[in-house]
């Protein structure tokens, strides 16, 4: 009798939530400071390998799909929904996979908020010839790398008879209550002994 994968409660996963909220708050705070203290196009320092340069990206990563804000909003929402579905339906999520999903979701939501409220994403990190980016972009990339590493490495088997995170599910509890006891006891003159 096959068991359906357990549905995960994302709001109880402190690894996922911690990563998601940390990235989202840091991303929105840094973008807000850039918009408050810099003028669009300004760079500090004016030249150099690593600079702060305020630009508004009305496209996707690397400047693709310029002016396609509605398409990018729909694609972002679709990506977040698919990632949330993957998280909820995956039976055994490793720590690395949960961290990766949290980093991706935090970054995706950070950029989605910019698109919805501002019509474009605030980018401010400039490194050499590379297109400008922000903390959300970095988080998405790190999350994708962590997720890929977690999915590509050999899976460790969950503990016998239970989920990988140590939770006792309702199904496991019912099976243990209905099954035969694995240890029986017999009364001896000196007390109970295991058989």
Describe the 3D structure.
The chain has one domain (10-168). Strands 1-2-3 form a 3-stranded antiparallel beta sheet. The chain is globular, with a radius of gyration of 24 Å. A hairpin with a 5-residue loop joins strand 1 (43-44) and strand 2 (50-57). The protein contains 5 helices and 5 strands, in the order H-E-E-H-H-E-H-H-E-E. The model is unreliable at 165-170 and 181-185 (pLDDT under 50). It has helices at 14-37, 69-89, 95-118, 135-152, 170-178; strands at 43-44, 50-57, 121-127, 185-188, 191-194. Helix 3 packs antiparallel against helix 4 (135-152). The relative contact order is 0.15. With 195 residues, the protein is of the alpha+beta class.
Fold blueprint:
Layout: H1 14-37, E1 43-44, E2 50-57, H2 69-89, H3 95-118, E3 121-127, H4 135-152, H5 170-178, E4 185-188, E5 191-194
Antiparallel strand pairs: 1-2, 2-3, 4-5
Helix pairs in contact: 1-3, 2-3, 3-4
Record keyword descriptors for this entry:
3-stranded antiparallel beta sheet, single chain, two-stranded antiparallel sheet, 5 helices, alpha+beta, 13% strand, 195 residues, 5 strands
Summarize the structure.
With 195 residues, the protein is α+β, with helices and mostly antiparallel strands.
